Amino acid sequence: MAASVGCLAFAATVAAVDAVDAAPWPSRPIRLIVPFATGTWVDVASRLLGAKLADALGQSVIIDNRPGASGNLASELVASSAPDGYTLLNGGVFITVLPAINAPHAVDPEAFTPITRLTTAPMLIVAHPSLHVSKLADLIALARREPGQIAYATSGVGTTPHLAAMLLSQRAGIDLLHIPYANTNAALRDVVAGEVRVMFTFLGTADAFLRSGALVPLAVTSATRDAAWPEIATVAEQGFPGYEVTTWSGLLAPSGLPPEIVDRLYRECARILELPEVRKKLLAMGNDPVGSTPEQFAAQIKADRLRWKEIATRANIRAE
Fold this sequence. Notes:
Strands 1, 2, 3, 4, 7, 8, 9 and 10 form an 8-stranded mixed sheet that branches. Strands 5-6 form a two-stranded parallel sheet. The longest helix has 22 residues, at 294-315. Helices cover 44% and strands 19% of the residues. By secondary structure, it is an alpha/beta fold.
């Protein structure tokens, strides 16, 4: 009898688990993996999106910060998870850059199901006032007079700012000295102090320093001028037509996510990104809301992967 009772209990447990697994998605909390630390703009944007998604889906969305290895730790975690819609990644350009620079253990972008590109953001080329340059042409002329002597800071080797700088160097025929930092805040601190006098960075992080005059804007890297700073000319406008480098964030899941879950997540995110309060907060951080279709997002990832591989190969950029 004891054995029979045990078998019945086990059968009941299995049936309960099966019932949960068969329940309509989502039937339990969702984890949104964030590849950067708490307080970064990616984290803030993820929490904003997560709260709205929780309301829409009727399940809590847990923000799980997993910084490290330029985003690759978070990528590995999500890529190895079950494709059931309960583990998602707020990924970025790094998923296409890391394979291009042969970063150790870089996750293949094919390991993900693209859902939607959430935001896009330009980068900014800035200088310390002591360098006495006011436009991109001044910086280029100075770099030609002093090849290999003008240092610029970025948030690390192989990051989007680094690749943006290398692309400009290739197009302009100049040799700048790269000073990589462990993170954006450390680099920005030294640039504001004048220790390094040029930086390729994100518009949102430099905004306050531009307004105070602590940094001088030279150019934005997007194809068009930024709405928040329309007076800053693009690199393309300043003699380099076709130059465009932007960064993005996007919602990804493990490869094999069922199409109906992909569609639900895409539609909810696209709706959320149109909400006035969400748009206002994202724009204030220097990010333009996007909400692309899964197909458009997949095409963007494919194009970025090829582009960064070409740029990294020509500049001989490899992970350190």
